[in-house]
Design goal:
There is one protein chain. The chain has 12 helices and no strands. Helices cover 73% and strands 0% of the residues. It has one domain.
Amino acid sequence: MTTIRPNIRTKSCLALMGLTLAFCLMVTPAHADNLIQKGMDFLSGSGKQESQAVPGRDEIAKAFKEALRIGSETVVDQLGQEDGFYKDPAVHIPLPEQFKAVKSAMDQAGLSFLTEKLELKLNRAAEKAAPKAKQLFLQAIDDMSFKDVMEIYNGPKDSATRYFKEKMSEPLAEEIKPIVENSMAQVGALQTYDKLMDKYKAMPFVPDVKTNLTDHVTEEGMEGIFHYMAQKEAAIRENPAQQTTELLKRVFSRQ
């Protein structure tokens, strides 16, 4: 009788079949079904498509900057409308803390309308300055490094807002201050302040009050912007309806 000697390829195939059989005997029917489905997906090409659908780091960075641009533009447009600050309890700008004595004295003298008018003017100044601050935020976003973007992307839902507050507050404040000061002059806040303080200083036994209205409006205005930027950032991350572009849907749907 002639003995047939299996060649190397045949031996390999037999070994593979043996391993496959042993593996199949070890798995449950449910696992087997899952393995079969994965194999079918791979053969049909869907597995490859899924791999290609995973966004790369450059795409993530681009998407996050796009999200921040959309968020900042939406927020400053909202707050830049009339009553955007004044009639919104979440961001309404009150009189400075140092003005408690002034307000109390004006109320007692029947001149509370002066402090109310000043408070309105401060909010109007912030509303007028908000749209002009848009470009500053957009520039700050463009200047973000790749490392900054990835840390924000992998951070909590308000990590971008925290980034702005921690790293950009001082330089942004310096840029925004002249805009706020100009806006205060345009809406008559400084004139109202001078008139109010003239009345106050004419009263006997009132304490001296010093405050910087420009700093106050700048700080409060930026806090208002950050407040809504945090909300917008969280919405874009979590709510598909807020993911207004295909790139955002592609990236944030996988978070």
